[in-house]
Amino acid sequence: MKLSIVSTLYRSAAYITEFHQRVTIAAHQYVGDDYEIVLVNDGSPDNSLDLAIQLTEQDAHVVVIDLSRNFGHHNAMKAGLEYASGEQIFLIDSDLEEEPEWLLLFAEQMTRDRADVVYGVQKERKGRWFERWSGVLYYTILNWLLNIDHPRNITTARLMNKYYVDALLVHREVETVISCLWVITGFKQTQHLVTKHMRSQTTYGLFKKFTHAVNTITSFSAAPLRMIFFCGISMLFISIFYAMFLAFGRLFMEKSVDGWTSIMVSIWILGGMVISFIGVIGIYLSKIFAEIKQRPYAIIRNIYGKSEQ
């Protein structure tokens, strides 16, 4: 099979029909009839699954993978990529914020650049000022802490060859941050500037974005642990020098040492630092705890439809 199109479904009922129509036209223009459309239902609470099953009855190219519950967007994408059998895999969100017609543009660039991956990068980050500002801050901190060059404002949409996808799926961690896995897998990757539309209310609230940022940093960088070490060393030397300063003043300059206020401030500052440091270490321990159990990152309840292999 020449092409597999992989997308996830979560609150996608309003878009799935149009998405199917447009991605079918793009696939026909690119590879004729030699393609499959893999839709992964990530525990969607609306009737996305029912609509997708109807598509399998109308179109033999459509395959629906129904996960047993919501495992998260990144794990759902991995489940779809594992099932995909095409020589090339086009990964895209189904909410039409990313255009199915990008397939043709990405394919042209892949041939021209002889690339293994062509991925979308937004010309300008969508959303209001806070989303754009927080995106700049996120990628700045990310690239500072991580030992990888993570592209800014990337989209889910990407065209990949099978060799790259097979290498990507070698990564078996349960707590998946797929955008970083895209980068560290390597191969020749080129970007294509796109304009992402704003069609739906984002399901990523501020808390979820913060949690994702913490998960990303602790999954791909030991920098927070090194920062704890250097901060502890710095505090040790500062404390030693300050103690020497107080002792010198008391012994040789007969200066009295005001105690209660400075002691209370020191206790609060050091107490907060110790608790936060323990929390950072706890995050790393929780990740070890999650990974060492080797639980599956997703569980498939059923598969509907079957494309020709």
Helices and strands in order:
Layout: E1 3-9, H1 16-31, E2 35-41, H2 48-58, E3 62-67, H3 73-83, E4 88-91, H4 102-113, E5 117-122, H5 129-145, E6 154-161, H6 162-168, H7 178-184, E7 189-194, H8 206-220, H9 223-252, H10 260-292, E8 300-304
Parallel strand pairs: 1-2, 1-4, 2-3, 5-7
Antiparallel strand pairs: 3-8, 4-6, 5-6
**Residue ranges: pLDDT <50 for 5 or more in a row?**
none
The SS-based structural class is alpha/beta
Helix percentage range: 40-55%
Give the number of domains. Answer: 2
Per the CATH scheme, the topology name of the largest domain is Spore Coat Polysaccharide Biosynthesis Protein SpsA, Chain A
- Report the biggest beta sheet as strand number plus sense, adding barrel if it closes: 8 strands, mixed
CATH superfamily of the largest domain: Spore Coat Polysaccharide Biosynthesis Protein SpsA, Chain A
Question: What characteristic shape results from the CA principal axes?
Answer: elongated
- Biggest sheet, strands in spatial order? 7-5-6-4-1-2-3-8
Order of helices and strands: EHEHEHEHEHEHHEHHHE
- Number of helical runs? 10
CATH C-level class of the largest domain: Alpha Beta
Characterization of the model:
There is one protein chain. With 309 residues, this protein is α/β, with parallel strands linked by helices. It has 2 domains: 3-119 and 155-194 and 297-304, Alpha-Beta Complex (Spore Coat Polysaccharide Biosynthesis Protein SpsA, Chain A); 223-292. The chain contains 10 helices and 8 strands. It has an 8-stranded mixed β-sheet with strand order 7-5-6-4-1-2-3-8, sandwiched between helices. Strand 2 (35-41), helix 2 (48-58) and strand 3 form a beta-alpha-beta unit. The model has no long low-confidence stretch (mean pLDDT 83).
